[in-house]
Amino acid sequence: MVHGTIHGTVEAGEKIDIRQDAKLVGDIKAGRIIIEDGAYLKGSVDMPNFITPSEFEKDSIKKARRKARRAGVAFFTPRLALGKLFPVF
Q1: What 3-state DSSP class applies to 18?
Q2: Is 18 exposed, middle or buried (0-12, 13-18, 19+ CB in 10 A)?
Q3: The model scores a pTM over 0.85
Q4: Where does the chain have alpha helices with state H?
């Protein structure tokens, strides 16, 4: 999780979470990246092609998909190997 200012390369095994009050000037290498509205990022981003979601993430996705289905709305889930979003009903 990034708060404040960082100048340089940042690497994380799973994810980097850049908060709205953060300023990151440098390159990022991580499996997942979360950037809040208002955060500043200048640099390149490298995300590995294949990411294996944890069991917790899999359970969270299943619960969100069921909740969306009950509400009658589309649920978008990342296809991690492709880096794209696809609707899942």
Answers
A1: strand
A2: buried
A3: no
A4: 55-71
